[in-house]
Amino acid sequence: xxxxxxxxxxxxxxxxxxxxxxMVYSASSVICEKDPRYGDSLYFMKRNLLRVAFAVAGFIxxxxxxxxxxxxxxxFILLAGAxxxxxxxxxxxxxxxxxxxxxxxxxxxxxxxxxELAKLALIIFMADYLARKRKTLNDFTRSFLPIVGIxxxxxxxIASQPNYGMAVGLSIVSVIMIFxxxxxxxxxxxxxxxxxxxxxxxxxNSEHARRRVITFLMGGDPLGxxxxxxxxxxxxxxxxxxxxGIGQGIQKLFYIPEIHTDFIFAVIGExxxxxxxxxVIVLFALFAWRGIKIAMRAxxxxxxxxxxxxxxxxxxxxxxxxxxxxxxxxxxxxxxxFISYGGSALLVTMVSCGILTNISAHVWTPIVEHISVPDETxxxxxxxxxxxxxxxxxxASHSGVKYRPEVVSTSSGR
Length: 414
What we know:
The protein is mostly helical and about 425 residues long. The chain folds into two domains: about 5-370, no CATH class; about 375-410. Helix content is about 65%, strand content about 5%. The strands form two sheets. Strands 1-2 form a two-stranded antiparallel ribbon. The protein has a two-stranded antiparallel sheet with strand order 3-4. The longest helix is centred in the last third of the chain and has 34 residues, at about 265-295.
């Protein structure tokens, strides 16, 4: 077992974080300078640096904490996650309705999004449950349905805030974890149809979600419902191959709402061009590759499931965000991991990656890394030396025996 963490994973995360700091400043500096509410071009930059510092501290702490200890407390972690989801319904704790959603609670002067912590709690519990039930997961009623039900409760609670984007993402992560753990495809198919049906009914019954889906499918008022996504596509197209240069973007100048959060990928497209957006996608692909490799080499089933869950969480939400900015998916409120301006999302993502890094410190080193293959010359020399040695030993062991054509006698005369 090697005690070295996955340095390539840390390098990927550090690159994404540094890119996020740069792009948040580029996306927000002009707006903050012109808007009297801020009056300082570094307003979001300073706050973002502070949040990054807290997130990095969380990453370091999680990377030093033995991931196997989460297994013992998995049920309590799940319960804490459930209580956090309920907390948004408590008047004294909730930050109130923001843009039609009750997703935040007030913690002193700061706000916290409980669903971010709850999704990590669910992943930890699922990793433990699937590890314990891996031999009986094919039992539909005793092992499969209970974990689907628990995940469903969390997903429904998040969707009811409403936060359909996160609910859909968590559904995908749950499906990936259950499938990788060895569940039967036919069992998953039996659950998938009623789940998709219920999700469709819920979206159609929500005016906010229904309007976004209709706008995505059929378009809308270019100065109303379609304004944000249309301006996002203009920014991506205007960037061309190499981009306009850092800080030279136009669409960030009051054209795209929430550009430093959910639509920061559009800033990357306009200012860094095709190569910049490709770099971001490649970095997330490399993150997925390192995460899968860590999962494959984890020393126990819990570590494997947890690594798969965290890797799926980060890459799934990254794909959703990029898909929204490129108008491949309906608009959601999902930030781009590591890069978008945010507090709760960045903190939970970094803590999750800290756990993944700790798992990498416990992976089993493949046996092939301990096998040195000598070249042909060394093999031939060793073989000749061994053969000559056996010949000398044979002569020495029979030195007291004389062989004659007719009689064999010993040197003692007997």
